Amino acid sequence: MTAGPEGGSGSAVTGEGGDSGSAAETADEARLPRPQGSGAGAEAAADPGPRTGMFRSLAVRNYRLFAYGQVVSNTGTWMQRIAQDWLVLSLSGGSGVALGITTALQFLPMLLLGLWGGTLVDRMSKRRLLIATQAAMGLLALGLGALTVAGHVQVWHVYLFALGLGLVTVLDNPARQTFVEEMVGRRDLPNAVALNSASFQLGRVAGPAIAGLMIAAVGSGVVFLVNAVSFAGVIFGLARMRPAELHVTESVPRAKGQTREGLAYILGRRDLLLLLGMTALVQLFGANVQNQIALITKNEFQTGPASYGVAAAALAVGALTGALLAARREHPRLRVILAGAAVFGALQVVASLMPGYLGFVLVLFPMGVAFMTWTTSLNAHFQLSVDPTMRGRVMAIYMLFFLGTTPVGAPIVGVLADVFGPRTGLALGGAVSLVVVLAVAALLAQRMRLRLRLTPTRRPFVRVAPNPEPGRRSH
């Protein structure tokens, strides 16, 4: 399914009402189910008017502190990701399986413990929890850096630290996702989610390029140490916040069956279930792009770490662009989610066919735009459309499907890359993603009674007809 430009011709998703003769919504107005109430619901009613602009959430002091700290920390995190991938490839002789195992161990805890983590997040102060998780991540980076600089690091050490990082992520991810609304309130949540993604991608742009140069100059160990220091930015921002200005959702008291309650809530939302299924399969086969980029640049194009950093940065620049474009949107839309995911899959296939390094890098930019377009809209939709007391558990389930399937897909794609070449792994992931998105689009069209209209989108207009009897007034 393709989506035409705003206001132009092309495919339009329109809604059909239950009564015959009801007006259809064009794709520009058709959105996902309207948000439910929030713990800070009074805030929306009391506020005299909405802030506007791409960076409107930065007007909130608490969020501004968090966002600036995130830029520093995200840069360090992406530096470590590049250094970790390159270190594993160097220690394992360029093994795609070893790289896949590292990724799997880092995301496996989310698959096994994600629901439990979301339940804990709903019971705790998210700001204090984030201070603890960010400090733990900094200590893990410090330990891996010390081992590498000392020259004692082995592949199993990297596996162990990746697993440790994954365990901390079980609590950090749902806490970070749900803390966004506490900082900015319900109305600015979509904008803040998009700016969070932009901050992440800004680090993704700078991090790989810096890491590539540093690895070539001083080695991976120093990169890990720099990342350890970068966590201080987020911790400082969290500590300097004004708790009285947070839109805190009341913590859920400890009780039996809360994890099952969260599952039952999701099972009762068929619209969310379909989107979760699509997310799981796209992430299972199509989300290990970073690994494929490393393998293709090293094994296919025979380039070094600097070229890998440039390729990773191209993907990140695209993702940053996609995040900033998402920040301009007021609400998540169904066609944006589906079209973004479909284009992401198609561009993976295109990238796998590129014969040269330059062409490969050029395709990575729009691939990043597409990926961030659908993931940012999807994240905002999930947060806006659920009960606030369930948000931690729901976002844990969302992250379970978004990240938890990665450890399953990473070794599979790694084996395919070793046996058939990394191009095959990338192409297969993209093809599967594209087919899955088209299937989910068809199911959503059937369930939500949406139809695809392959005609130009018409806009309202006024036409003044001449009076058929001049000189006579109409009544």
Automatic annotation (TrEMBL):
| Renumbered residue ranges of the record's region Disordered | 1-49
Q: Where is the composition biased (Gly residues)?
A: 1-20
Any one GO molecular-function label of the UniProt entry = transmembrane transporter activity
Chain segments annotated as transmembrane? 96-117, 129-150, 262-286, 306-327, 334-351, 357-375, 396-420, 426-445
Which ranges carry the Major facilitator superfamily (MFS) profile domain? 55-448
What the entry lists under Gene3D superfamilies is as follows: MFS general substrate transporter like domains
For this entry, the protein name equals MFS family permease
Native source organism of the sequence: Nocardiopsis mwathae
